[in-house]
Fold:
Amino acid sequence: MNWFSLFLDPNTQWILMGSMLLGLSSGVIGSFAYLRKQSLMGDALSHAALPGVCLAYMLTGTKSIFFFLIGAIIAGILATAAIGYITRNSRIKQDSALGIILTVFFGVGIVLLTQIQHSNSGNQSGLDKFLFGHAASMVKLDVYTIAGISAVLVVLCFLFFKEFKLLSFDPGFAKGIGLPTILLDQFMMLLIVTAVVIGIQAVGVVLMAALLITPAVAARYWTEKLHVMVILAGLFGAFSGFVGTVVSSMVNNLPTGPLIVLSATVLFIISVLAAPNRGVLAKTRLRVSAKSEYQPLTNQRVKEKSL
Amino acid sequence: MAFPLTVNNLTVAYQKKPVLEDISFRVPEGKLIGIIGPNGAGKSTLIKAILELIPSITGDVAIFGESYKKTRKRVGYVPQRESVDWDFPTDALDVVMMGRYGHLGWFKRPDKKDKAHAMECLDQVGMSQYAHRQISQLSGGQQQRVFLARALAQDAEIYFMDEPFVGVDAATEKAIIALLMKLKSQGKTVLVVHHDLNTVKEYFDWIMLLNVKLIGIGPTEKLFTKDYLQKTYGGSLTMLDSNTSPIIVSPR
Ligand SMILES: Nc1ncnc2c1ncn2[C@@H]1O[C@H](COP(=O)(O)OP(=O)(O)OP(=O)(O)O)[C@@H](O)[C@H]1O
Ligand SMILES: [Mg+2]
Structure:
């Protein structure tokens, strides 16, 4: 397919727009999840969303983002409650508990998904695309919904920026000055689950966590300011969404999710290498220049001694 | 006039065994108070329970005669430095500005006035030249001073500080103490968890001796004696009585 005709096609334009907005909101929310050291939690929530979404489909028989969201939220609440219960009542640490719950929920999700595909309605449902995403299967209404919800997510992060910042940096202090930290914490979880659900169609549950976290980690390399990091992560996410979708629509039948995540990973690698100050290259250069600046001093001292 | 801090029958437990047992005391206005006790005595726990960061089993706390919920804005807090991850994308000035958040309310951003105020607080702890330094690039003592500046920015009337002198050099420690004395002279009440028994007499006009139970609280000259200290630290304390001031030989 020709590059240019691709961008002229209104349908593709819509789909591109949808994946970009999805990447934008995921990057923004993912920044806070990453800084709060909840990367694994994002992974657990996205895997846990699968059985919730499947059940919502089985019960309602429709592919509606609204019902999916309810299913995913209930599954997310169950998963976090189970993780909390395990860490409190056994000697299993949180990361292991996350691993257990993630696999259990995902396993149940796969069983349900197989069940749906074997039933009559399943063949046309397109639910099989939920694992790795297929942006091309989005219709205009899907894109509208994704765009609308993404916009709401980004606006919420903007409005609660100050509160989210304090909660991420120093939750104890936040609680001390009277922020309802438990409520805010759950609110953030809800935002993450929402991002996962709107990302299911384009990216899939397996890789949605990567789209949340990778742009944020990459953005962290470029800046020491939170608001710059959040904006950058959003841009990185949008860029990944763009590239992934374009490549997948040019190469037949490649799932979008892995391509989007691969683009984000490329950005991440570039960041690790080339970012100023924190990047590997900059650090090496700094070390070398520090050494060479130090050299004349030691030489001088040697000279003085020899005199 | 209500007391700045009144605690009645406070008991706190993380597990079955209480780590604070039936603590009751009152703190008068304008005092610089050292909270003293061995590791695990419950000093940090006491502060956290007063600030409702952790639940208590029994007891009630009144700050200026009212519940903490109503008096939050009059309370400043310096947590132990290790309580946060310093590799966070922000600079020193921004952290100090967080002290203003409690006064700002929801959705409002700090403005120029808050920024100028935060800068002043950084200046008071001698950190103004580091205002725009990323916080992970500050030394431990400098980070501690940033936390102190954040508490100052809270514009409180009663301050709780958990080991503000850990990792701070001697000169800075003296400067901070001078600052705390200034707060005291403005009629503010400052409670400081402190470990160095050698400086207690010099710094604090009141002390609180704590080891799960409250051993005593009152003027330093009355309570800073061998008897009381032995009671607080148990047999783990060896002292040489050099004239009047007890010198600690091996607090293990
Ligand atoms: N989160 C927690 N869960 C369970 N037990 C805890 C927790 N935090 C503290 N403890 C226990 O409570 C007791 C009091 O701890 P606390 O931190 O208040 O001591 P501290 O007096 O501040 O000690 P330090 O001088 O070492 O700072 C200790 O025995 C400690 O083991
Ligand atoms: Mg402590």
